[in-house]
Amino acid sequence: MPIRQPRLSKVEHAQRGTALYEEKIRPQVEAGNFGKVVAIDVDTGEFEVGDETLPAAERLLLRFPDAQIWFVRIGHRGVHRFGAGRWREAR
User: Fold this and answer.
1) Cα separation of 30 and 42, whole Å?
2) What pTM was computed for the model?
3) pLDDT by residue (tens digit) across 38-67?
């Protein structure tokens, strides 16, 4: 498998992914999917929803092999958590 190289800076990648999620994807996926992960191709705006990042990314890559993926966890500030704290809904 060839190593994919990023085409955008980290900042631009994050900005595109966040904007796509907030403007187009969030209204489609938010209801009934709290805590699930959205894998978003920042170039096409296509996405996959899953319980974990890897399966969602794999499904997206099957459809778009050159996808540049941004992840969002529905209803949370971050995709992953650190430490022993409990998940809390983003405010």
Assistant:
1) 19
2) 0.81
3) 999 999 999 999 999 999 999 999 999 999
